[in-house]
């Protein structure tokens, strides 16, 4: 069965495992070790990017797991991203090819990493479509696009934009963007789902975790996937990779979900790198 029997979302019919493994800041040796370990544990979705400088190591970790018979290539959903310096057509196609070569496979999903005003969205979206047509990726999508730009990009694209990967955790509301994704038939992927570890000491989350016999991290990841949003936590520790995967055997009540939603605050954003030509959604 593709992606084992873990839950998926299927924007435009493209099945994506709701829980993935993030690799930002994992240097080559850790990236190869942790990707292999994540696949051994059961993760079937791996997230990387050209700018993380670890695509080759991520590809090696996947190849190790495939060679050991842990998993088949077709059972893994692999995402990478086009860096902002490569948004002109020729540069985008060059990087798309380079990323596929570094990974040693055709990624399932290729995202535009952050929106930028130059070159035009028309040129970049058209080039992203071309990358897919030329076989450098199976599917395409976005990252860090506010709703207005998300809509423009979707209107310009021939192929469906299957996700918009954005910062999302209990301290940052993404209500508007989640509704926009739903309207567009796309999906949201939550980066920094654990607020880079800040959720570990949260008393509200801790109280809910105690009721379920789970950790704060597990409760937060469950809260995200229970909304139909994809979560891609990162860790350099094998024990935490296993902890973060162990979220499929419990459910949060509507009241518990609401208590975590209520933790969102106006200054909750951690990673702000949006070009000043654009604006985040107002609830974000
Ligand atoms: N598209 C974008 O612009 C963008 C931006 C940022 C990130 N991302 C993607 O999203 C992924 C996740 O985001 P992130 O790496 O920023 O942050 P994150 O997953 O929210 O947090 C990672 C941090 O939390 C710690 N941690 C892991 N599991 C934990 C747990 N159960 N309890 C407490 N702490 C825990 C890790 O430490 P240890 O390693 O010590 O366990 C690490 O320091 C990235 O790796 C990357 O793939 C994308």
CATH architectural grouping of the domain at 17-196 and 228-235: Alpha-Beta Barrel
Give the total of beta strands.
10
CATH topology of the domain at 17-196 and 228-235: TIM Barrel
Helix percent reads 25-40%
**Radius of gyration based on Cα positions:** 18 Å
Strand content: 5-15%
Bound molecules: NADP nicotinamide-adenine-dinucleotide phosphate
| Major pleated sheet | 8 strands, parallel
Main sheet: strand order: 3-4-5-6-7-8-9-10
Strand pairing plus helix content: what structural class? Answer: alpha/beta
The average pLDDT value, as a whole number, equals: 97
Report, as a whole number of angstroms, the end-to-end distance. Answer: 37 Å
H and E string: EEEHEHEHEHEHEHEHHEHH
Any idea what the CATH superfamily of the domain at 17-196 and 228-235 is called? Answer: NADP-dependent oxidoreductase domain
GO molecular function: oxidoreductase activity
Family: Belongs to the aldo/keto reductase family.
Protein name: 2,5-diketo-D-gluconate reductase A
Keywords: NADP, Oxidoreductase
Question: Which key terms come to mind for this protein?
Answer:
13% strand; 284 residues; 10 strands; single chain; two-stranded antiparallel ribbon; AKR; 2,5-diketo-D-gluconate reductase A; binds NADP nicotinamide-adenine-dinucleotide phosphate; alpha/beta; Aldo/ket_reductase_CS; TIM Barrel; eight-stranded parallel β-sheet; NADP
């Amino acid at each position: 069965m593709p992606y084992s029997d873990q839950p998926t979302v299927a924007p435009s019919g493209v099945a994506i495992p709701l829980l993935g493994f993030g690799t930002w800041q994992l240097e080559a040796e850790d990236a190869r070790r942790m990707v292999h370990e994540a696949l051994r544990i059961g993760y079937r979705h791996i997230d990387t990017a050209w700018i993380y400088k670890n695509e080759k190591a991520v590809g090696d970790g996947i190849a190790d797991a495939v060679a050991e018979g842990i998993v088949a290539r077709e059972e893994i959903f692999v995402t990478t991203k086009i860096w902002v310096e490569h948004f002109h057509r020729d540069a985008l196609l060059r990087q798309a090819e380079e990323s596929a070569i570094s990974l040693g496979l055709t990624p399932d999903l290729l995202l535009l990493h952050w929106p930028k005003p130059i070159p035009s969205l028309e040129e970049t979206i058209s080039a992203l479509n071309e990358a897919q047509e030329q076989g450098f990726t199976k599917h395409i999508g976005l990252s860090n696009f506010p709703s207005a730009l998300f809509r423009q990009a979707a209107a310009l694209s021939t192929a469906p934009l299957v996700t918009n990967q954005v910062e999302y955790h209990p301290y940052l509301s993404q209500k508007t963007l989640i509704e926009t994704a739903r309207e567009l038939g796309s999906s949201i992927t939550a980066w920094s789902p654990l607020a880079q570890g800040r959720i570990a000491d949260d008393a509200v989350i801790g109280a809910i975790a105690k009721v379920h016999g789970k950790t704060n991290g597990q409760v937060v990841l469950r809260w995200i996937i229970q909304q139909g949003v994809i979560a891609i936590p990162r860790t350099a520790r094998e024990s935490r990779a296993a902890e973060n995967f162990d979220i499929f055997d419990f459910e949060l009540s509507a009241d518990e979900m609401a208590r975590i939603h209520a933790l969102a605050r106006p200054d909750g954003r951690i990673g702000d790198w949006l070009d000043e030509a654009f604006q985040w959604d107002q609830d974000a």
